[in-house]
Design a protein that fits this description.
Length: about 190
């Protein structure tokens, strides 16, 4: 009943692991896909004359129309809203030179850290690459905190959300060209 079975298990195993979610997004960013994604979104930018046409700003007739208008405008003017965000971010960097210096210093610190084999010594200890990244991250976050990056971040996000919400709510979506998909948001019903 018991017989010897020989199975050859020699060779190399190279399992491919599929990254999921945020890790996959980070991998795309590391491969240089982030600029391509931003440029792809920006290529769909609508004319600014259409974006700021004051004759198309009207209060919505009802809540369902407001909801439909909001989603339609977000979809249609997505690249313009991204440009508004980038403009507000640039404004904050220009008006806060200390923050600009902190971001530039953090960038060049990161480039220096990743440029080659660096050895940091603290006393008689030599820091591993992971420990070097941890020290760099702590120093960079402290520098940005001292420069007021938190306040700038919340100001930019708050201003962007306010501008986008106001524009998307009051710009009359019925004046826009028809969408490719007629029923983009099936749960929203116009009454």
């Amino acid at each position: 009943m018991s017989e010897n079975i020989n199975i050859d298990l020699s060779g190399e195993m190279n399992p491919t692991t599929e990254k999921k979610g945020f890790q996959k997004l980070l991998q795309h960013v590391r491969n240089g896909a982030a600029p391509a994604l931003v440029l792809g979104v920006l290529s769909n930018r609508r004319p600014w004359t259409q974006f700021v046409a004051t004759e198309h700003f009207k209060p919505p007739a009802s809540i369902p129309r407001l909801s439909r208008r909001f989603y339609r405008n977000i979809e249609y003017f997505q690249a313009n809203y991204l440009m508004v965000f980038l403009g507000l971010f640039a404004y904050c960097l220009i008006t806060s030179p200390l923050l600009l210096i902190a971001i530039v210093a953090s960038f060049f610190g990161y480039r220096k850290l990743t440029s080659g084999p660096n050895t940091w010594k603290v006393g008689s200890w030599e820091l591993t690459k992971t420990q070097q990244y941890a020290v760099y991250a702590g120093a960079s976050m402290t520098l940005c905190w001292l420069a007021g990056a938190g306040a700038v971040l919340f100001w930019v996000l708050g201003a962007t959300v306010t501008v986008v919400a106001m524009h998307a709510s009051f710009f009359d979506a019925e004046t826009l060209p028809p969408s490719d998909s007629l029923e983009q948001f099936p749960m929203i019903e116009q009454v």
